[in-house]
């Protein structure tokens, strides 16, 4: 799932519904691409934490794709830097990481 723009209080309700649906089954394997996200507030971070908890409870996997230092800085300042599996690139279908073209 690729997200873009701002993930704030106005965006979290539809995002929560979509992520809940994607993480509802057993052993979900979610990849959320945050590279085009320009802003994330505490409501957005809360949704990511909620999704991580749901996925973990179902013995699944959640990976965040982020290469921007601002998002990583936010995670460090909130104490969440070690909580998420952060990757700089999208994984291929086998789960191995491959560079994106362009």
Index terms:
Transcription Regulator spoIIAA, about 100 residues, alpha/beta, about 25% strand, 4 strands, four-stranded parallel β-sheet
Can you describe what's shown?
With 102 residues, the protein is an alpha/beta fold. It has one domain: STAS domain (Transcription Regulator spoIIAA), CATH 3.30.750.24. It has helices at residues 12-22, 42-57, 69-78, and strands at residues 2-7, 29-40, 61-65, 85-87. Helix 1 runs parallel beside helix 2. Residues 95-102 have low confidence and may be disordered.
Task: Briefly summarize what is shown.
The protein has helices at 12-22, 42-57, 69-78; strands at residues 2-7, 29-40, 61-65, 85-87. The chain has 102 residues and is of the alpha/beta class.
Major sheet: 4 strands, parallel
Helical segment count: 3
Tally the beta strands: 4
Q: What percent of residues are in strands?
A: 25-35%
- CATH class categorisation: Alpha Beta
Distance between termini? Answer: 19 Å
What's the order of the H and E elements?
Answer: EHEHEHE
Q: Unreliable stretches, pLDDT < 50, 5 or more residues?
A: 95-102
Radius of gyration based on Cα positions: 13 Å
* Order of adjacent strands in the largest pleated sheet: 1-2-3-4
The secondary structure category is: alpha/beta
Percent of residues in helical segments? 25-40%
Overall spatial form: globular
Name the average pLDDT: 88
What is the assigned CATH homologous superfamily? STAS domain
CATH architecture: 2-Layer Sandwich
Number of domains: 1
